[in-house]
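Re-run with default settings, no changes from the original entry. Doing this only to confirm the output is reproducible before filing.
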Amino acid sequence: MEPGALLVFVGLLFFNSESASSAVCDVNIDPSRVVVRFGDPVIVNCSTTREDVFEAGWESSINPVNEPNSKITVWNVSSLIVWDAEPKCFINYMNEPRQCVEKLDLVIYKSPESVSLIAPEFMKIGVESTITCQVLDVAPARYLSVKLYKGDEQLGNRSFTHDSTRFPVNESVPFPVTPTRADNGAEYTCVAELQLGPGGPKPNPTKRSPPLKMPVVYKPSLLSAAEENVEVREGGSIVLKCSADGNPAPKYEWKYRIADNVQEITKDGVSTVNIPRASSSNDRVYECHAKNRYGVATKNITLTVKGGTPWIMIILLIIGVVLAIAIIVGGIKFCGR
């Protein structure tokens, strides 16, 4: 091979080698994902291993950077106070590809300003109601998780993964609740959590609503059998009892034939009918009605007054005693003679 041809061959080989080594985009961002609270500082490095660098820098709505003849460029913000920064690292080269751009995976977040519960004044047993979690001024929504708890039991969870809004938003999340009798006075709480993923703070930013105790209303339910049969001896005393559970607390009404020796007393949620010196006039059915605005429960107590010692027996017994005494006294006098 001629010397001139050899030089051309070597030159082409060198050119092709240099082109091959520079024909790739080599942009390295560190850290590759940044999670930063709104208003906090942030520092991110960007670099390349290629040698044919013309300039490097950052495109951003805050603190843009342009550094000629540098393989490293730093985006440094002392206080990130914009939501649409969208920083991109760019590197311009002398050879193809002439420019390479890499967008920073940046998450700017703000914990909720407040979390509260919106609920009806009361719930009715077996009827679906809605308890709403209200989350104010939180960002970004796509990382937000809203949960409703009854005590330590989670009742529901709502996320917003398809919401691309970067700016702070307000979210109202309704949760259906169908209460039981046991839920009366239960404590409900709403928890808003930002699940920010890799690079985010640990534990996740979380805000909890003040607890809310919810009354559950229901009609009265008897705490004892609805039918009872009781007995008392004539002249004896007896107390008939009636009690029920309800919300609001039930009021009691007794129905029976009026008698002078009957007294009604209601105390500590129990209503009683007190009957001293029972007689046949008290022998009847006593109806107890426990009422509130949502219903009534009825209890029937049948009282039987059993007769005492018959008067004829008492008279005969007295006569017998008198005769016995007379005989004894007469015998003593006879012996004395």
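The chain has three domains: 24-109, 114-214, 220-306. The domain at 24-109 is CATH 2.60.40.10 (Immunoglobulin-like).
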